Amino acid sequence: MAKKQYNLHQVKAKKFLGQHFLEDETIAEQIADALSLKGYNKVLEIGPGMGVLTKYLLKKPVTTYVIEIDTESVEYLKNNYLNLASRIIEKDFLKYDVSEVFGDNQFAISGNFPYNISTQIVFKTLELKHQIPEFSGMFQKEVAQRICSKEGSKVYGILSVLTQAFYDAEYLFTVPPTVFNPPPKVESGVLKLTRKDNFTLSCDEKLFFRVVKQAFMHRRKTLRNSLKTFELSDSLKANVIFDKRPEQLNVQAFIDLTTLIENDEKEID
C-alpha cells in the first residue's frame, strides 16, 4: 500500500509534542543566518516540522540533518525535500546518540524548539559542548531571556550560569505569537550561543554543576545557608563570598566558589 501523502494543510500541530509551526519566512531566514558556519560543516535542526527553517539551512554551504519524531512531519519532509530524505533522523533528540551520524565531528544546532523540551535541549547541548560550537534557535521568550541573563537579574539562575560557563549567549529578537500555527499563548525569543574559545573550566566540572544547582534551590538564602549540604569547614564559611545570594555571583565567581569548595574538601579529607 502506498504511503499517505501529506501536504501543508494535512500536517496538524500536536499539542503533546509542543508543536507550534513557524509560518514567517523572514524569521526562519534570520534564525538560519544567525549561524556563522565557522568551525564546522554540519548542522542538526531539531524539530523541523514542515521545513520552514530547513529550507534556509539547506541553502547554506553546510550539510543539514534534521531530527524529528512526528511521523506526519517526517513524511511531509520526505515528499517535499527530496534531497534531504537520507538525512532525516526519525528519533527523539533527547534520547539519541549523535555519534551515530556525527561521530566526533563538530556540528551546530538550530531549530524552532518545542517549548516543553527546550530546557532539556540546552542541557543536552551542554553535555555535547565539545562537539557543538554554535547554536541558534527559538524558545519561549522567558526561557531565552533566562539563558542570556546576567547576575542581578530576577530571572538569572541555573540555566544562565551553566550555559554561560561554556557559551557566549546573545538574545537576538522577540517573536510574536501571530507568526505561528497554532499561535502560542506567549511570546517567543530567538537566541544564539557561541562556544567560548576556552570552554574547559578551571575547577571540577561535576562539582561546579552541583554547586550551582544547590545554590539556586534556595535562591533567597545566602550561600552559607543554601550550601549547607556540602559540610564546609568553618574557616571556609567565614569567607565573605558566603554572605552573598546566588543571583549576585557571575559565572567566574561560581567557578571561584567551586574551586574554594574543592580545595576545602581536599583539606578535610
Describe this structure in words.
- The chain is α/β, with parallel strands linked by helices and 269 residues long.
- It is 34% helix and 17% strand.
- α8 (205-217) packs across α11.
- Mean pLDDT is 92; it is low at 1-6.
Major sheet details: 7 strands, mixed
Task: Please count the helical segments.
Answer: 11
Mean pLDDT score: 92
CA distance, first residue to last residue:
68 Å
Summarize the structure.
Helix content is 34%, strand content 17%. It is α/β, with parallel strands linked by helices. Helix 8 crosses helix 11.
What attributes characterize this protein structure?
34% helix, disordered N terminus, alpha/beta, 269 residues
What is the secondary structure topology, with strand pairs?
Blueprint: E1 21-22, H1 25-33, E2 42-46, H2 54-57, E3 63-67, H3 71-80, E4 88-89, H4 99-102, E5 108-112, H5 118-127, E6 134-140, H6 141-148, H7 158-164, E7 167-175, E8 180-181, E9 188-195, H8 205-217, H9 223-226, H10 234-237, H11 251-268
Parallel strand pairs: 2-3, 2-5, 3-4, 5-6
Antiparallel strand pairs: 1-8, 6-9, 7-9
